[in-house]
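Table 4 source record.
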Amino acid sequence: MVPAVAIPGLPPADDDPGDPAAVLLDRAALLTAARRAGRRPDRAEPLPVCAPDPRSTVSPSAARRLRRLISGEHPDLLTEWLAAAVARGLRLPPQLLPALLDRARRGRPADPGLPRLLAEAGGPRARWLADLNPDWEHAVEEPSTDDQTWRLGETRQRRGYLASLLIRDPDAARALITGGWDAAGGADRVMFLSVLADALGPADEPLLEAALDDRAEDVRRWAAYLLARLPGSALGQRMAERALRYVRVEQAAPGPRLSVGAPRRPDAELRRDGITAGPESVRAPFEIRTHVLLEVVARTPLNTWTDGFGLTPAEVVALPAGGLAPVMFAGWSRAAIAQSNRDWISALLGHALNGRPGPAAEIEALRQLARRADPACGAPGATPVSANDPDAPPPVRDAVRLLRFRYDMLKELDDG
């Protein structure tokens, strides 16, 4: 039954005494109109006040660049932009914070470090906004210093605590890792190693060397990757010995060149150091050999080549290697990026920009080099080709555009 409608300020409406259906429809219409007209407001509590942020805001040109990054142009450079803004003590444009919070929410777990970086770059306003919207609850993540987080928190929270502790007290952080290693599952061990990646030191080698024998493949892969990045590690020395057996300089009529080979199949020692026969798609003997060669070169300390051949990085990269040249280029590129060796990155980048990248692995290596090169490589006139040069291969033009984008991106922050 539809109740009689009482509208404040108006006399009660007369019902049609002869038609119950008309009464029902009239009352329903009046109720609908009354509800659409609104209601008396409830008492609303004022929003909490956002703490002030004393930092200077980035320049308008830097803000426009950030908007382009959020919109999908070179999105993999967003974390570099945010880290650069933090390093310069700059404040983000407040109008872009909601889009950044959405990006951080959608990006988990692909980019687990973005919430922590956004907390630092966004400052108190990012935290204030996140507290107002449940969807952004985990989009901003400030490192916890409460050891309860380590004992009772989720993996994501424990990772944040461990990363923060590694900065404040490296010895205590390493003690937590070694003390909890045996009881941890594979996922937690991978988390331990991923945190160590940002603060590797000689003291980590025994743990990493032991992790090469772990039951979990992901743990073994991470351990081999980190040992290859650790200067002077025993794994690096083992890789250097193998590399100089596989790759030699020989004198030919046109000039020196590389003689390149690799084992037909990885032996037990290679497998322990993280090098297998490759994915299921790699079955032919030649494919297995090139895969093994690539992985060994990628894990070899780069001074192996310069010291062993008595050449500069640019001279080593320029040596002809026949059909295996793309494999050597991709392996050297991975090693240069992992070891953060800017001399090698510049040599490889210059070689690629003057040539014609071939297979997909070589093109991807060129893109990664452009991301990690010294930003000055993107200054006007610094590259041998232009981004608009119609004679340059498309991957080369794309790499030059990326270099120029990074150069402009950081210059705008400096100009702020």
